[in-house]
Specification:
Largest sheet: 8 strands, mixed
Mean pLDDT: 92
Strand order of the largest sheet: 31-32-34-33-35-36-37-38
Number of strands: 38
Oligomer: single chain
Number of helices: 11
CATH class of the largest domain: Mainly Beta
CATH architecture of the largest domain: 7 Propeller
Shape: globular
CATH topology of the largest domain: Methylamine Dehydrogenase, Chain H
Length: 708
């Protein structure tokens, strides 16, 4: 979800008469992976497979490092290690780090050493089994043992290294009144000795996603990397206690190590919620604004020549105007800025600089994929380099000729690929020797469909079918409503994986209705402020069109969704009885109380309006208003630690369902937040959903998961 959930309502008109689904031309051609998946995708295979993320390329271009997550030795945990991959494919991949705590947040220093965070114990200190600190470590370029650079008591929150200097910047969590890292540790010990867990707040917001902005808050530090590999850092506090301004740890350091560019939130004048772009001078600690106004600035990157910074700039919307996103270029010396992608009708993400500072690479959702783009500074031309699959983690090579990246498809999880830094309509090449995933992937047949809404808008969807589905053996259909609400279905999904349902005989439809990105700003505007109106009818339009196929069983359908998709599931339940079952995860139910309990409720006023002056808007858009119409059996799922959509939404929904006699079950996770991430919890999540669908869609006997 973008920042929460919300919207919908209106008396849902019947969707327009379905038109037969059509295979869109080349743009919508079925996307198939190059491997043939023969083995069943069981939960055991799914959860034992390596999960790749955080791809990084060394300064000399000779080493790729990627984070690889697998289930750990403990019963319910994932463990991440850093692996090195040869970009040429000549050498076999090798594991760089190994510890019981795992490692993450890799960054390369100028000398090629690898910086990462880990909660592994300090080898020179007495072990404390109750203390797990995300400390900063350094692994020499030639390999060997990693050395501890710094272990602040509150942990490290991200790290960036200068390209041309032995300088780094990092975030760390400290108590508001702490004057140093040592003072912060003393304050933590005093609280522990007094057995105090109370927190005092004086600002807004007070929590974010899954953590409180207390008793510690983030600050930024700068430090010189010592020449002695055994020496510790001597960091300088650049910000002091700035309040809750760092909602996300988006920052970068200039090549000379003298400037940090970061996002800076100011929510002191609600309902205004801007996030500015600022530069902090490392020597003087002076802060100057590079970009401000009614915008959210994020994901800043400083150019290799130190002249510019780019950032993703998203406009703050209003009830009558949707947000929009672009790549924003700023001259660091003058502060002047301009839109680098004024003609791009998409939502760009994750910019990366060409080594000669002549261009910026980025990704953006596009027609159910995540494409890779190049934007040239001189002529302003934007080129789509790769349009197939879901691209991420772009790493330009030092010679400017090649981009390394992670690429997923609807059939297979992310793999390391390469493609040229210029040229259109490329097909990425997978590295010949990369992390072995055992050929993991889905056996389902993946097709791209397009239906037409009443206003003539094309509604794109992915359809994943069991291999043996036919007109003689039509498959029951489960619809996945995506989260966001600003989002789309593209690539492999570890939390909402259609192939696990396909193995049980279900076909899965993944539509991108109004408010989805990747289809131009008009598509976002169609659903902005109308969550239960156009997105709802678009989903039913896509489903009705798909159900004209003879290989789908229109009499056996279900709908599931999480976050905004959970909102949509609740909305659908109150507006139609056509589905045999509905699964709603981390979902919104009653929007007025949600405004006051979610982590960033004031931010939602930009789309929904003022809940104090116009509460009827919230009431009218709440799925709760239609509880009396719900007849469909529902499975409610929620995590206790979810601050974006608080568990109070699920409790209210559950009470209302039981009060009105709706057949329902409630799957509750006391140790999870907005996402169910622990392996055994996630297994139970899938097992319960599949048992619920089997009961109501296939007519099988309910089988309660053994561990529940």
């Amino acid at each position: 979800m973008r920042n929460g959930e919300v919207e919908g309502r209106w008396e849902a008109a019947a969707p327009p008469r379905a038109r037969a689904p059509r295979r869109a031309q080349d743009e919508f051609a079925p996307l198939r992976d190059d491997r043939v998946m023969n083995e069943p995708l069981t939960l055991d295979r799914f959860y034992s497979a390596p999960r790749l993320s955080g791809l990084r390329l060394s300064p000399d271009g000779r080493r790729l490092v990627v984070a690889v997550s697998r289930p750990g030795p403990e019963a319910n945990e994932m463990r991440t290690a850093l692996w090195q991959v040869d970009p040429t494919g000549a050498k076999a991949p090798r594991r760089l780090t190994r510890s019981s705590a795992g490692e993450s947040a890799a960054a390369f220093a100028r000398d090629g050493s690898l910086l990462f965070t880990s909660a592994r114990p300090d080898p020179d200190a007495k072990a404390d089994p109750d203390k797990k600190i995300a400390a900063l470590w350094r692994l020499p370029a030639e390999g060997g043992e990693a050395s501890l650079l710094l272990a602040p008591d509150g942990g490290i929150e991200g790290v960036a290294a200068a390209r041309n200097a032995d300088a780094i910047a990092f975030g760390a969590l400290l108590h508001p009144a702490a004057t140093s890292l040592d003072d912060d540790a003393e304050r933590a010990r005093a609280r522990k000795d007094a057995d105090v867990g109370a927190m005092l707040f004086e600002d807004y917001p007070i929590r974010f996603w899954d953590h409180w902005f207390a008793p510690r808050r983030q600050r930024f530090f700068a430090a010189q990397l010592p020449a002695d590999p055994e020496a510790r850092l001597e960091p300088a506090d650049l910000t002091g206690d700035p309040g809750p301004v760092f909602l996300e740890s988006d920052f970068d350091i200039s090549p000379d190590g003298r400037t940090i560019v970061t996002s800076w939130a100011d929510w002191s004048n609600l309902p205004a919620t801007p996030i500015s772009l600022v530069a902090i001078d490392v020597e003087t600690k002076a802060r100057r604004t590079l970009g401000a106004g009614d915008f959210y600035f994020g994901q800043p990157k400083v150019s290799p020549d130190g002249r510019f910074a780019v950032s993703v700039r998203t406009s703050i919307g209003a009830p009558d105007r949707a947000s929009a996103s672009t790549v924003w270029l700023v001259d660091l010396s003058t502060g002047e800025g301009r839109d680098l992608t004024p003609k791009l009708d998409l939502w760009p993400e994750n910019p990366a600089w060409a080594p000669d500072s002549s261009a910026v690479f980025f990704v953006a959702d596009r027609q159910g994929r995540v494409a890779a783009f190049r934007a040239d500074l001189v002529d302003g031309r934007t080129t789509c380099l790769v349009s197939g699959g879901a691209m991420s983690d772009l790493c330009p090579s030092p010679d400017g000729q090649t981009i390394y990246a992670l690429r997923a498809t609807m059939t297979a999880p992310p793999r390391i690929v390469r493609f040229a830094a210029s040229g259109e309509k490329q097909t990425p090449v997978e590295l010949s020797r990369s992390i072995d995933d055992g050929g993991l992937g889905g056996r389902g047949r993946v097709e791209r469909l397009s239906a037409t809404a009443a206003d003539g808008t094309a509604i794109g969807s992915w359809l994943v079918l069991p291999p043996d589905t036919s007109a003689e053996k039509p498959a029951p259909v489960v619809v996945f409503a995506h989260g966001g609400p600003i989002g789309s279905w593209s690539g492999w999904h570890w939390r909402w994986n259609p192939h696990l349902l396909v193995e049980r005989g279900y076909a899965v439809l993944l539509p991108d209705p109004a408010i989805s990105i990747g289809y131009g700003q008009h598509m976002v505007e169609r659903g902005w402020g109308r969550w239960g109106e156009t997105p709802y009818t678009d989903i039913l339009t896509a489903l009705d069109a798909a159900l004209t196929r003879p290989d789908l069983d229109a009499s056996r359908t279900a709908l599931t969704g999480g976050s905004y998709g959970g909102y949509m599931a609740n909305w659908v339940a109150g507006h139609t009885d056509r589905f045999r079952a509905i699964v709603t995860h981390a979902s919104l139910w009653d929007l007025r109380p949600f405004h006051g309990t979610t982590d960033t409720g004031a931010d939602w006023e930009h789309e929904m309006g003022d809940p104090y002056r116009q509460p009827e808007l919230y009431d009218r858009q709440s799925p709760a208003a239609h509880i009396g119409s719900i007849r469909t059996p529902m499975l409610v799922i929620h995590g206790e630690r979810d601050f974006r959509v608080p568990v109070s939404e699920a409790l209210a929904l559950w009470t209302d369902l039981r009060r009105h006699g709706v057949p329902a079950r409630f799957l509750y996770f006391p140790d999870e937040h907005h996402w169910i991430l622990k392996p055994n919890n996630a297994r139970l999540w899938y097992e319960t959903i599949l048992a619920f669908l089997d009961e109501h869609v296939l007519g099988k006997e309910w089988v309660r998961p053994a561990l529940l």
